[in-house]
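Project outcomes to date are best conveyed with an example. Our students and postdoctoral researchers have been running inverse folding experiments weekly, and each run begins with a structure described purely in tokens. The record below, which covers 480 residues, was selected by the lab manager from last quarter's runs and is presented without edits.
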């Protein structure tokens, strides 16, 4: 069928491959035949979608794919163009063309770029980069930077601790004065420092199983023995925690992700929260609460952190991160804890990393103070909710009899359990060969014999067409 500029797009509609790949192949063919020339404009996605009678996301996906492969370039607010740096691909004469094998286009076309499914990363394409860039410039060029170029407080820039203190109180009901806040390089550093402040080498920490392997690595690096507590459909099994605490005299701490359990996404209910606080109180355990994606709550209000509920004397080390709000590459996390524990963490931090990145911290303080971070969170929340719903809908319609999942009330990932008899490892292996990197449940299991047949699929970093492609690849690679 013809669209503007006479591009010939052939849609097979035989269901053998996604329609966007038909569009990709047709456009590559047009470029190779010289009917689309370097620098020439492509039709707008809306117009092309209308003329092909397909969803605009499908054309978006095709253009995105071609841009990633280097055939097209997208120029902001101008449109999409054939890349200017392509060699002349036209055959020398008609005879050459006739002698070319019919599948020449297919063989020359590079395979679609692999689709990497994260465990719940945000979409860096949405990050408020210009605002952060401006804030960084202000921080570097402002008078505060000149007076602060030497070594500063190992807890981090005061301006950021003040901004975080206000933010945590208004967004999460958490009272944390700036003096009781420690800014870290991501929550990963916070996890290591927390364990090293409350656990002596050889003592133990209980963790959720399945859970977050990087936390276990941090605890082990601090010398702790890591003991798994099973997780069920309501989150960590607190009765099992109590019996483990009874038989482990060296248990000192418990690490939890109560808001959205990692990896199962479940929110720990009120009953279990209260029991957990009770167990910690009577067994003298420190709770390490990792609240890594608090802002992303789509259904109902976010649940208050355990740290808000705990009384003053109960040690809860509360750890947060900007990795989900901005991007994992912006290495800023933060911790608040009882003053004596925080002081030990600050000492250890200073021993390995004298202080954080001051201009970055000042820039982030600016981003919080002027409301840009909140505005970004609001916008991202809307987009991620639509992506969550889109993925859930596609999964139900394409793989409804192979998988089950609870649509999570929040967070940036879906925990997808497989129908009995299906192996997540085999499926992930097949998918990998088809260009889809997806993480099977085994990766999150401390006790491999209990590894869940499941996938954790982060949906926030992929747009709707990418999510459709993900489900398509999953359904095409399903093991028998
Ligand atoms: C459970 C959990 N905690 C914390 C984080 C954030 O880590 P960081 O702040 O070091 O980037 C993540 C990121 O993937 C996570 O999954």
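After processing, the design step wrote out the following sequence:
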């Amino acid at each position: 069928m013809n669209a503007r500029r006479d591009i010939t797009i052939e849609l097979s509609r035989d269901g053998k491959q996604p329609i966007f790949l038909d569009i990709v192949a047709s456009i590559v063919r047009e470029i190779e035949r010289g009917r689309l020339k370097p620098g020439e404009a492509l039709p707008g996605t809306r117009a092309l979608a209308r003329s092909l009678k397909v969803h605009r996301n499908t054309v978006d996906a095709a253009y995105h794919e071609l841009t990633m492969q280097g055939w097209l370039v997208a120029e902001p607010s101008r449109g999409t163009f054939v890349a200017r740096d392509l060699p002349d691909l036209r055959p020398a004469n008609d005879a050459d063309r006739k002698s070319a094998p019919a599948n020449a286009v297919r063989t020359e076309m590079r395979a679609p770029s692999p689709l990497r499914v994260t465990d719940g990363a945000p979409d860096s394409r949405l990050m408020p980069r210009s605002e952060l860039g401006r804030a960084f410039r202000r921080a570097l060029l402002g008078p505060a930077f000149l007076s602060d170029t030497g070594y500063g407080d190992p807890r981090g820039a005061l301006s950021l601790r003040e901004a975080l203190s206000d933010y945590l109180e208004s967004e999460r009901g958490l009272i944390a004065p700036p003096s009781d806040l420690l800014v870290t390089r991501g929550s990963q550093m916070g996890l290591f420092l927390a364990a090293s402040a409350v656990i002596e080498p050889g003592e133990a920490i209980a963790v959720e199983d399945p859970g977050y392997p990087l936390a276990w690595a941090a605890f082990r690096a601090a010398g702790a023995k890591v003991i798994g507590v099973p997780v069920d459909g309501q989150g960590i099994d607190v009765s099992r925690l109590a019996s483990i605490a009874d038989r482990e005299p060296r248990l000192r701490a418990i690490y939890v992700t109560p808001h959205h359990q990692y990896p199962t996404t479940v929110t720990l209910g009120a009953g279990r929260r209260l029991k957990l606080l009770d167990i910690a109180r009577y067994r003298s355990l420190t709770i390490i609460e990792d609240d890594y994606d608090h802002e992303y709550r789509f259904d109902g209000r976010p649940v208050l952190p355990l740290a808000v509920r705990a009384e003053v004397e109960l040690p809860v080390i509360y750890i947060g991160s900007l990795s989900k709000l901005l991007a994992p590459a912006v290495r800023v996390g933060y911790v608040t804890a009882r003053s004596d524990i925080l002081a030990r963490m600050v000492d250890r931090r200073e021993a390995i990393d004298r202080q954080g990145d001051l201009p970055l911290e000042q820039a982030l303080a600016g981003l919080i103070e002027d409301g840009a971070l909140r505005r970004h969170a609001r916008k991202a929340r809307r987009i991620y909710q639509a992506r969550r719903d889109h993925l859930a809908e596609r999964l139900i319609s394409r793989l409804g009899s192979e998988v089950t999942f609870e649509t999570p009330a929040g967070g940036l990932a879906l925990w997808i359990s497989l129908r009995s008899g299906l192996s997540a490892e085999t499926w992930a292996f097949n998918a990998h060969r088809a260009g889809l990197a997806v993480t099977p449940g085994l990766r999150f299991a401390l006790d491999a014999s209990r590894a869940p047949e499941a996938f954790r699929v982060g949906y926030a970093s992929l747009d709707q067409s990418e999510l459709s492609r993900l489900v398509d690849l999953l359904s095409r690679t399903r093991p028998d």
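The longest strand covers residues 225-232. The chain has three domains: 4-109, 129-373, 375-476. The training component of this project remains on track.
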